[in-house]
Amino acid sequence: MEITLIRHFMTQGNIERRYIGTTDEPLLPGQPVRRRYPAAGAVAVSPLRRCMETAERIYPDVKKYVCRELRECDFGMFENKNYEELKEHPDYQRWLDSGGKIPFPEGEGMDTFCERCVKGFCNMTGRFIEEGCRTAAFVVHGGTIMAVLDRLAHHEEGFYHWQVKNGDGFRVKLDEEQWRRGVRRLTEIERL
């Protein structure tokens, strides 16, 4: 099975370099689809508006499955703020000093976030396999993509190695028989 992981198109919060997790903002108007994306027999999508709008632009005629577990991280008290607004805040400095390892104050921890995303990805992938889908796409968030690949790609590069720009992503493959047996491994990973 071949799966394409795509980060949503650009939002105002992305331009302003804000921590946009639970904020349900729309895409910037007038963004064209600038590339040809791999075909997909089904699309899994985060319930947040920016992902839903992106999925509709890229795959207008493909059935979409909304999966709550694929949402972006809850940034807690950092939500909808940028570095300039946070740089003097002691909780932000503590979070930076930890290398992003401690939970966001009043938000989600990295392990909880990654486990949630992987669970959603595995559930949707299992569903697509059972339905006989040979190609699928996940239109999600940058953090979601990093979480899934960090846990399932079995590479040593680490979480931030999998960072992508808006509208970019990865194409991956998996062995359906191994997946059915519980071997959760993504192979042949390439950037779009």
Structure description:
The chain has seven helices and six strands; from the N terminus they run βαβαβαααβαβαβ. The protein has 192 residues and is of the alpha/beta class. The chain has a single domain, classed as Rossmann fold (3-Layer(aba) Sandwich). Strands 3-2-4-1-5-6 form a six-stranded mixed beta sheet. α2 links the parallel β2 (42-45) and β3 (64-66). The protein is globular, with a radius of gyration of 16 Å. The two termini are 17 Å apart.
Arrangement of strands in the largest sheet = 3-2-4-1-5-6
Q: Helix tally?
A: 7
CATH superfamily: Phosphoglycerate mutase-like
Number of DSSP-assigned strands: 6
Topology readout:
Layout: E1 2-7, H1 12-15, E2 42-45, H2 49-58, E3 64-66, H3 83-86, H4 90-97, H5 110-130, E4 135-140, H6 142-152, E5 169-173, H7 176-180, E6 187-191
Parallel strand pairs: 1-4, 2-3, 2-4
Antiparallel strand pairs: 1-5, 5-6
Helix pairs in contact: 5-6
